[in-house]
Amino acid sequence: MPTSVRDAMWMMIVAATGLIPMVRDQVTRSLLSLSSDDSLKDAARLLKRSRITGAPCYDDNSLDGILSRRDLLKTIAAVPEEIADDPGALEQQMASVREQTSCWEVMTNRPQTISPDVSLIEAARILAGKKLNRLIVKSKYSPVLGIISSTDVVFSLLGCGSDKGCGIDEGDEQIDWTQHVFRGGAELDVGSTGVAEHMATDLLVVSPELSLEDAARVLKEGQVTGAPVMEADTLVGVLSRNDLLKALAAVPDDDATFKEQISALWKQPVSSVMSNQPRTITPDTSVYEASKIMVTDQLNRLLVTNAHGKLCGIVSSTDVVFAMLGGDEDEENEVAWLEDADRFGHMQGHMQGMY
Asked: Across the chain, what does the average pLDDT equal?
């Protein structure tokens, strides 16, 4: 069944019955995957090019584990500081790591699983409690059925299905896109190096009074998982996927009250769930240091501000991983590698005929 049709049907069911949607309604059954023998360089490129935060690792047709951005960040942050302080030594070390370390050496080999018969609210609780980005969907005695991501859970429960966009366009009267675009490059200090070379400066932002329903639509249409919260030109917080997961996890897991509770949550302002003291770094912070902060604080992004506290941009964990492990790009070979049919085929056989 096409995703957009499935999502429309789910919304109709919720509106009519108030029943809590289940994991089986949002499981992704066709996935990109890695071979356990792939290098970390290949893994970093796959994640960045495919705009995903992790991928299952297979040895032949057997699931070995999951490689996530967090696993890759930990590998970078584990480099001794005495090596990191010497740019030449650091590059030599990272070249060795990216080319000679395989996925199986750093992946999570016992990934968290969830039953397809569990509610999305319970999935939100597990994801938020353990700060995970995805769960393997698997019944007790079944093979792997697929994956459900934190993005699937957040956008589905906030009324924005798992199809690519939410149907928002520039003519949408509900959302004024001019209020959500921020260009931070002008705030950069002259001569900035470090993360300034890798961060994004054209950003989507949200206001503290925006409803969570509309904020989710902005994030989904912009294909981002979090955004700075701005009041005029002042940074007042950050809205992350984990903030939204924690809010959803607090919704009672009760069919009788779900429709009322979730509708009330949709109307809450961003200020009610955002983190009002976001972790910030300066543009000249090294990429290595950014990786250590992300690992220590379990963050997927860092806001970059100048000496006057003005927002300059965002550096994501994907930016950090690719900068340290991706190496020089070969566009032609890169496209051919990503289009390799085997990358898409590992999970298909396990999932045929499930529903």
From this structure: 83
